[in-house]
Amino acid sequence: MYIYDDYDHQMLEERITQYRDQTHRYLAGDLSDEQFLPLRLQNGLYIQRLAPMLRVAVPYGLLSSTQLRKLASITRDYDKGYAHLSTRQNIQYNWPELEQTPDLLAELAEVSMHAIQTSGNCIRNTTTDQFAGSAPNEIEDSRPWCVIIRQWSTFHPEFAYLPRKFKIAVCGTEIDQAATQLHDIGLYLQKNEKGEVGFKVLVGGGLGRTPVIGKVIYEFLPWQHLLTYLDAIMRVYNLEGRRDNKYKARIKILVKALGVDVFREKVEAQWQFGKDSQATLTEAEVNRCKSFFTSPEYESLQDEDEAVTTASNSDLLFNNWLDRNVSAHKQSGYSIVTICLKGTGAAPGDITDRQMEFVADLAERYSQSELRITHEQNLTLAEVRIKDLYEIYKACKTESLATPYLGLLNDLVCCPGGDFCSLANAKSIPIAEAIQRRFDDFDRLNEIGDITLNMSGCMNACGHHHVGNIGIIGVDKKGAEFYQVALGGDAGREAKLAKILGPSFSQEEIPDVIEKIIQIYLDERQSDEKFIDAFYRLGIDLFKERVYAEAD
Amino acid sequence: MPKLIKDGALIDDSWRLIEKETSLEEIKPSSDNKLLVPITVWLENKEVLSQHKDNIGIWFDSDESPTLLEEDANSFPVIALNFPVFRDGRAFSYAAILRQQLNYTGDMRAIGDVQKDQASYMLSCGFSSFLVPENSNAEVLLTGFEDFSENYQSTVTKPAPIFRRRS
Ligand code: SF4
Prior knowledge:
The complex is a heterodimer. Chain A is an alpha+beta fold. Chain A folds into four domains: about 5-110, Sulfite Reductase Hemoprotein, domain 2; about 135-290, Sulfite Reductase Hemoprotein, domain 1, CATH 3.30.413.10; about 305-395, Sulfite Reductase Hemoprotein, domain 2; about 415-550, 2-Layer Sandwich (Sulfite Reductase Hemoprotein, domain 1), CATH 3.30.413.10. Chain A has helices spanning about 5-25, 35-40, 65-80, 100-110, 145-155, 225-240, 250-260, 260-275, 285-290, 305-315, 315-325, 355-365, 390-400, 430-440, 440-450, 510-525, 530-540, 540-550, and strands at about 45, 50-55, 60-65, 80-85, 90-95, 125-130, 170, 185-190, 195-205, 215-220, 325-330, 335-340, 350, 370-375, 380-385, 415, 455, 470-475, 480-485, 500, 505. In chain A, strands 16, 17, 18, 19, 20 and 21 form a six-stranded mixed β-sheet that branches. The N and C termini of chain A lie far apart (about 55 Å). By secondary structure, chain B is α/β, with parallel strands linked by helices. Chain B has one domain (about 5-165): TIM Barrel (Alpha-Beta Barrel), CATH 3.20.20. The mean pLDDT of chain B is about 90. Classes of the chains: A alpha+beta, B alpha/beta. At the A-B interface, helix 1, helix 2, helix 6 and helix 9 of A face helix 4, helix 5 and helix 7 of B. The complex binds iron/sulfur cluster. Iron/sulfur cluster (SF4) binds near residues 421, 460 and 463 of chain A.
């Protein structure tokens, strides 16, 4: 993984000094609330319903065991013993004291971590597929490119006060697990016939109030020009994005208003000035960044391992876990393990200090001391020998982390909602739990098969409800908490937005509604058709009819 | 007299800032009166004002592009860009455009809501002087320019990004 050099350390130190001074001036009354607001946000600090919330940046979701142990100790010392994994591969603390945040940030800096630009109207943490570097059939490892973008976007003097937040995702894997098309800028790594690397550039995607799938603005941008082209996009947005209405300020609204062709022309016009400037990437820099992400020295091993096969024949639960939570690796004899943090009764994405330390140890022992946070709020170990799988499974079981639900209905994605978030219309965690309780049976979940369920407590869509096969969103109905259900969303390479089923439901009705939807699918599906495919074959009207018919 | 930060020092500002929508009669340009006029006033009264060009500077609001000056930019000793509120970041981009695209070499001034916490970014975008807002502590503002000693990216003042300087 990327190792900080003197420049990185120095800038981090300077940032902490700057933020310490800002916090000090704010507490002394020299900075107004309005002045302090964007400053604290750009250091990851929100003021929430119950306490401040601090969002720590985990660049592209990648963590070392040492970093995770530090996060665990911070959880104990500054928080209440647990933290939350966000849908943007970051970690959030829900209970730090404002006065203590500079110290907390200084502790993070000890392990090369920070909360820079995790909030506010600036370029946020760049995200990518959690299987990057390990997935089979990968086009190109996205991580070095994420590092390059991280450096370019960090403290960019021109783009720290944008009209609104700005999110970039990079994807080089065959299956897109980074929701690339739903970002302000989405970058797909490609190779041309000569084997040269470039990017397909998408712009103007996003969720929130106005969900939009990004549009292609450049088919094949040669890698050398990545940063100058990004600068050009950012400049057009910074100058022309709306600043009069925060709900119309994202780049997607600008792209929509201008049309992608006019937007592209404006970007081209700006790019002329920056293209081939000193910001043009060099081979030396790309190679330097790549050198941090070389594969470990693989042992020559077979995919078949006798001990694992024997164990899976006798231990049914292990067999289930193998089926669901273990994915193919590019190297034979190796696999990718995802620890599903969706055990029933725990808030999705929450992890205790103890569990963090446990996973850190696990990664150290079995997976090159590295792990990744997924945007489905789980944890991935990407370099695991197949012959170690049973050991890992048994260890996870002792910490209640062996839930074999990955990719199944109960592996649902859910924002913190009304229990924590001051913007919420409705709670989300209790609804998630009610659904999980209703379906908490492996055989039943497995019969339903691959499906995504996403839930947000309001239209800000932190739970990505627009791209869930089933999406649930909290709405306010005359002061009462209600829930709207939508179907047919997909965050992958064939991205689709979910369609609203109809009038909203009360909290109590939701598990029944989900059950009805699932039953319709089970009744109508053809052979091993997935939920999403059956939904598009059957059409929303059928679901609408049957779900609401029985309610009458 | 208003205060100005230039080359790291606090000095008196000898330029009079003319409000928007001021008429030419009210401005009374003369050779012993340095005026920072709004771009709209300049465009409407180019002929008259050109006679005092050494004593005329132009200021732009955050929704006005300095490209309106085209190749004339370099004939002004001062061009100012306004931050109506510190979180309106357009002037950062216009500053870069003025330096990199119009090749402006004169004094580029930040005016309006100029605060310590944005000062180092302003400097990196090519601003060379900073009008201290009324009621604001110039000494505090002065300390903001050194918040960061480096930039990762290519900037107006340091066109070579770190990756071209890393050994
Ligand atoms: S979706 Fe709404 S309720 Fe949920 S975390 Fe985001 S802002 Fe808060």
